[in-house]
Amino acid sequence: MDYAVGIDLGGTNIKAAAVGPAGEVLSQSAAGTRDDAGAAWAEGVRELIEALEARVGGAAACVGIASPGMVARDGRSMASVSGHLESLQDFDWVDYLGGGRALALINDGQAALLAEAWSGAAAGARDAVMLTLGTGVGGAVLTGGRLLTGHLGRGGHIGHICLDVDGEPDSLGVPGTLEEAVGNRTLAKRSRGLFNSTEALVAAHLAGDANATRVWLRAVYQLACAVTSMINVLDPEVFVIGGGIAQAGDALFDPLERHLGLMEWRPGGRRVRVVPAALGGAAGALGAARHAMLSRDRTL
Fold it and tell me: Which pTM does this prediction carry?
């Protein structure tokens, strides 16, 4: 049947969707991620694929898998994974899942942008940037209608750009990165132990807590610096912000827009649209399915 299965393999959950050629979701499902040295998450992926195919009533034409890390050049595994799901590295998906379906792997941040450019906040755009702000900071770039992957596949890892050359190194050894500045995993340190989640921080900020306001607005300012820098380098039509922090709504976008009004280079008065992601938690699986379709079509 002419449909794709998209898998979004995360550190906590695995999300799956059967998607038709026009982007229609035929069926979807989810399961917890079993992260252990034995790669139990792989069996979870297989089970979700088989369950969706049973519901739809036929084998998928192709399968896309989105996960953390950098895709290997042969397209069979993730060549580099740090943090959660490190056992993904070098795991051969083609060998594990067997033949019968075209298979395409993609970084999870790239999958999210591909979905938003297909049917979400960046629909129709050929030049777009996306940041996913959560525990860490993911990113992806669409240029001329194609994902920017670069020579080895590192393209679009915006979370690792340096904002402070004297800052603490991140997981890759880069000092003072955007991820360290706004990622949820550093919030306790940045707030001196007062807050452990962005949701709690924003709620306290809106309630008038001066300490929360200081921490929150500092993070938004640093985010604005990163967004402006990426605009100058990549010149996108639209800049999409996703992940948990984007749910802060006006508490995020109002001060962000004020900073961008002072920083952004706007030739002829033209500005880049900075918008929240539209697809939420469904983006990864949808983008994985879209990537599988595109990869299959390029090989036909």
Answer: 0.91
